[in-house]
Design brief:
single chain, alpha+beta, D-amino Acid Aminotransferase, Chain A, domain 2, 4-stranded antiparallel sheet
């Protein structure tokens, strides 16, 4: 049985943007297991005695039922470079806990402490190994219309009309000034700008 992963940001001892995580978890359980009974993660996840001054990753492993829940202090990665990798027909439309394909694709990265991969599928830019991306053209922020995984933070910013989906090809990168990474743990204003020149082909 496939096991899925949901990572939720915990700030001031609160689950952040839990409605978006509810949507993804419930959509995944229905699509993969045919389960229509919806979960409310704010009722399932019981907050332990956490340091209110720290940000935590709540790591939920589940399939038909919850398998485990753990809380880990969050340490932000400082990504400075991205290496372009074609991921072929790799499908990650659900957030599976099994991530060995990403690890294999990342084998080309010579400096993994400060670099990651920028994945290309069918000629289109998608994601990094752990985040969605947004790109700034001087007026607006855009995000790939067909990511490998529709992240919760990406969905939130699209709903707020702060970012706009569009197809972005590798040859289109010169149209943009900079790139940022976003995911459940990494808000728009928390990510460092990555210059387009730091995308290595």
């Amino acid at each position: 049985m496939c096991q899925l992963l949901e990572t939720i940001k915990v700030k001031h001892k609160r689950l952040m943007q839990v409605a978006y995580h509810n949507n993804r978890v419930n959509d995944s359980r229905k699509a993969l297991f045919g389960l229509s009974r919806e979960w409310d993660l704010s009722e399932i996840i019981h907050m332990p005695d956490l340091d209110p001054d720290l940000i935590y990753r709540c790591r939920l492993l589940y399939a038909r039922e919850v398998n485990s829940i753990e809380f880990v202090p969050y340490v932000r990665r400082n990504i400075q470079n991205l290496y372009v990798v074609d991921c072929g027909d790799f499908d990650y439309s659900f957030k599976y806990a099994e991530r060995s394909v990403f690890e294999k694709l990342k084998a080309i990265v010579p400096d993994p402490e400060v670099a990651d991969i920028l994945l290309i599928k069918n000629g289109l830019i998608t994601d990094t190994s752990f985040s969605n991306i947004i790109l700034y053209d001087g007026l607006r922020w855009y995000t790939p219309a067909i990511p490998l995984l529709k992240g919760t933070k990406r969905e939130y910013y699209i709903d707020k009309e702060m970012i706009f989906p569009r197809d972005i090809r590798l040859d289109d990168l010169h149209l943009y000034k900079k790139l940022r990474l976003i995911n459940a743990m990494l808000d728009w204003d928390e990510g460092e700008d990555i210059p387009i020149e730091h995308i290595i082909q």
